[in-house]
C-alpha cells in the first residue's frame, strides 16, 4: 500500500484533500461569522437567521439515495462506511443521462498545491460526464481569503465561487447576500428531485446553506460527530502494556508514565481540543456553536467554568513536561506532528480524523509495525464526556446572481454528478479520475499515479458532495475504526442552541472574539495566566458580549433552539 492509494471520504475526512495537517486543521478550527437572514429581499437582511416554518418552505425535499448500500450504516450521526474491495465492473450509475446543456461555467475555488493546466484529461472527462464546460480559476488556498475579498468586491465575479466557512470573515458575508443567486426555484421542495444526488444530501446540510433567507449554497456535508480525534500509537501502547485512559485523571497518570525526556520520549502534543470535549465545552470554531442554554440562561462557552478547567488541565500537561517540546513553539495547528509521532517521540496527539488514514497509509511500507488508532474521548471526574455536534456543512459553492437560468441549471448538473455516492461511476470519476490515466485498481484497491495526484485534486469535489462517507478499500480496518469511533462518540454528542442555523451577527460584534484562540494557546503554554482569561471575558462582556447575548436570546425566542 502506498500513500497515494485511494481513500474515499466526505464530511470531515474529505478534508484529506487538503495539502497538509496545518491546512486541514485550519478547516476544523478556523472560525466563521455565520450568516443568514429573516428578510426576504434579494439583498437579504444583514443579520438574523432562517429556521422553522420559514426554512421548511425553502429546504429541498430529502429523498434517500438507494443506489449503493454502505457496509456500515450511519448510527448516532456517524458517517456511512464502506470496507469492501472495489469492483469497477460492479459500479452503479447514479446519473443515467447527461443533464448539462453545454454552457461554459467558470469556477473559482481554493487549491492547495500546484493547480493542473486546463484541458487536462480529468477536466475533459468530467466535462463530458456532466455536459458542461467547466473552466477552473484555482487560487492559492493559503491566501484564498484575500483573493476572495478582492473578487467579490469587483464587478467581475465568476459563475461559481467556492467559499469555505473559515474564509467568511470581514465583508464576505455581506457579499454572499448581494452577489449570489437564490437556488430555491431550482431546488426547494420537490424541485430537487430533478437532481437525485442533491436530493440525497442531508437536510441539515441544506439548512446551513440558507444565506440571507435564500437557499444560496451548495454544501459539502459533514459528520454530526466531532472530527477531532485523540490519536495514539497502538503498537507502542501494546508493546509497553499501556492502558487507554478513560478519564482526564487517568490521562495525566498515563502521561507521567510514558514521558522520559532523557530518552526523548514525551506523552503527547497539545491536547486542548480534546480537553474541550472532555470537559463539555462547545466548539469555538463556528461561532453560534459557542452558545448553550444553562439553567435557563444563554451562556457563551468562554463564560463556562468548564472552559477554564479545560485550559487549566491542558496547561498542567505542559507544566509537567509531558508535552513534546515542539508544541511549545506556537499554536498546535501550526505544527505538522506526523514525522515525530511516527518516530515515537510522542505517543498521543489530537487532530482531524482524516489523519487516521493518512498516517497509517504513509507508514505502511517504511514502518509496517506502525499502528495509529483513535482513543475514545474521555470524561472528567468519573462523568461521561459532553461532546457538541459539529456544523452539518462548512464549505459551500455559490452561483453568481447574474447567471442565466441555463447556466444555473448546468451548475446543478455538475453538482448532481459530484454529489454521487461512493460506489458509483460518477463518484469514481469525480474523486479518482480516469482509470488507466489517473489510477489503476490493484487487488480491489484504486491507486492514483503521479498524474492522478496532480490532476484529480481540490477541484470538482468542492462544488457539492454526498453525505459524509468513509471508505478505504486498501485499509478497511481503518475505515471501520473511523466509523465505529464516530458511532461511539455520537452517543455522547448533543446539539448546541444554534446547531445547523446559518446566522449573521451584526457587524459591530463580528470581531469581538478574535483574540480568544491566541489567548487560549498562550495560557496552555504558560505564557499567560487563567486570570488573564477571566479578565478577557470580563472585557468581552463590557465591549458587547452582553449585548450580543441579548441579540442571540431574541433569536432563540423567535426561532427556538436546535439543542437536543
UniProtKB/TrEMBL annotation:
The record's InterPro entries line, in alphabetical order, gives:
Bact_solute-bd_prot1, SBP, TAT_signal
Name listed for the protein in its UniProt record: Extracellular solute-binding protein
Q: Which family does it belong to?
A: Belongs to the bacterial solute-binding protein 1 family.
The family database entries (Gene3D superfamilies) matched by this protein are listed as: Periplasmic binding protein-like II
**Source taxonomy lineage?**
Bacteria, Bacillati, Actinomycetota, Actinomycetes, Kitasatosporales
Q: What is its main location?
A: other
Q: What domain of life?
A: Bacteria
Give compartment(s): Cell envelope
Checking Pfam families in the record gives: SBP_bac_8
What keywords is this UniProt entry annotated with? Signal, Transport
Amino acid at each position: 500500500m502506498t500513500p497515494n492509494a485511494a481513500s474515499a471520504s466526505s464530511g470531515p475526512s474529505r478534508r484529506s484533500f487538503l495539502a497538509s495537517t496545518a491546512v486541514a486543521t485550519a478547516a476544523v478550527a478556523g472560525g466563521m461569522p455565520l450568516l443568514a437572514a429573516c428578510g426576504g429581499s434579494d439583498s437579504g437582511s444583514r443579520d438574523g437567521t432562517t429556521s422553522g416554518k420559514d426554512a421548511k418552505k425553502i429546504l429541498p425535499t430529502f429523498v434517500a439515495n438507494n443506489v449503493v448500500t454502505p457496509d456500515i450504516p450511519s448510527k448516532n450521526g456517524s458517517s456511512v462506511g464502506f470496507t469492501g474491495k472495489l469492483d469497477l465492473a460492479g459500479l452503479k450509475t447514479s446519473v443515467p443521462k447527461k443533464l448539462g446543456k453545454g454552457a461554459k461555467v467558470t469556477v473559482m475555488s481554493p487549491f492547495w498545491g500546484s493547480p493542473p493546466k486546463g484541458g487536462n484529461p480529468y477536466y475533459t472527462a468530467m466535462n463530458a460526464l456532466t455536459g458542461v464546460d467547466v473552466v477552473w480559476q484555482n487560487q492559492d488556498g493559503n491566501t484564498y481569503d484575500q483573493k476572495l475579498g478582492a473578487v467579490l468586491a469587483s464587478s467581475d465575479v465568476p459563475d461559481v465561487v467556492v467559499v469555505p466557512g473559515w474564509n467568511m470573515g470581514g465583508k464576505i458575508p455581506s457579499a454572499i447576500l448581494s452577489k449570489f443567486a437564490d437556488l430555491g426555484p431550482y431546488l426547494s421542495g420537490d424541485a430537487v428531485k430533478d437532481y437525485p444526488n442533491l436530493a440525497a444530501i442531508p437536510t441539515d446540510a441544506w439548512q446551513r446553506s440558507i444565506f440571507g433567507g435564500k437557499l444560496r449554497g451548495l454544501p459539502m456535508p459533514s459528520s454530526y460527530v466531532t472530527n477531532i480525534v485523540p490519536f495514539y500509537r497502538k503498537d507502542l501502547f501494546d508493546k509497553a502494556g499501556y492502558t487507554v485512559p478513560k478519564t482526564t485523571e487517568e490521562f495525566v497518570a498515563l502521561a507521567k508514565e510514558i514521558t522520559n525526556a532523557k530518552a526523548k520520549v514525551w506523552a503527547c502534543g497539545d491536547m486542548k481540543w480534546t480537553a474541550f470535549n472532555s470537559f463539555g465545552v462547545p466548539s469555538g470554531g463556528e461561532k453560534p456553536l459557542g452558545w448553550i442554554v444553562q439553567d435557563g440562561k444563554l451562556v457563551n462557552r468562554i463564560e463556562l467554568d468548564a472552559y477554564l478547567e479545560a485550559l487549566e488541565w491542558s496547561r498542567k500537561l505542559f507544566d509537567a513536561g509531558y508535552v513534546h517540546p515542539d508544541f511549545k513553539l506556537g499554536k498546535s495547528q501550526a505544527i505538522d506532528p506526523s514525522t515525530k509521532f511516527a518516530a515515537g517521540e510522542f505517543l498521543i496527539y489530537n487532530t482531524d480524523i482524516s489523519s487516521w488514514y493518512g498516517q497509517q497509509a504513509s507508514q505502511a511500507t517504511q514502518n509496517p509495525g506502525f499502528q495509529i488508532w483513535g482513543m475514545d474521548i474521555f470524561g472528567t471526574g468519573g462523568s461521561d464526556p459532553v461532546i457538541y455536534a459539529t456544523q452539518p456543512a462548512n464549505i459551500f459553492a455559490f452561483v453568481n446572481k447574474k447567471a442565466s437560468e441555463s447556466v444555473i441549471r448546468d451548475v446543478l448538473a455538475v453538482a448532481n454528478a459530484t454529489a454521487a455516492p461512493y460506489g458509483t461511476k460518477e463518484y469514481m470519476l469525480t474523486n479518482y479520475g480516469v482509470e488507466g490515466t489517473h489510477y489503476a485498481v490493484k487487488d480491489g484497491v484504486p491507486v492514483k499515479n503521479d498524474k492522478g495526484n496532480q490532476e484529480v485534486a481540490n477541484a470538482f469535489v468542492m462544488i457539492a458532495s454526498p453525505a459524509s462517507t468513509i471508505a478505504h478499500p486498501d485499509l478497511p480496518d481503518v475505515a471501520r475504526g473511523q466509523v465505529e469511533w464516530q458511532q461511539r462518540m455520537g452517543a455522547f454528542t448533543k446539539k448546541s442552541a444554534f446547531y445547523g442555523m446559518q446566522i449573521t451577527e451584526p457587524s459591530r460584534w463580528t470581531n469581538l472574539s478574535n483574540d480568544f484562540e491566541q489567548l487560549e494557546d498562550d495560557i496552555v503554554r504558560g505564557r499567560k495566566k487563567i486570570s488573564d482569561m477571566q479578565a478577557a471575558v470580563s472585557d468581552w462582556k463590557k465591549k458587547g458580549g452582553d449585548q450580543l447575548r441579548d441579540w442571540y436570546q431574541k433569536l432563540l425566542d423567535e426561532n427556538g433552539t436546535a439543542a437536543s
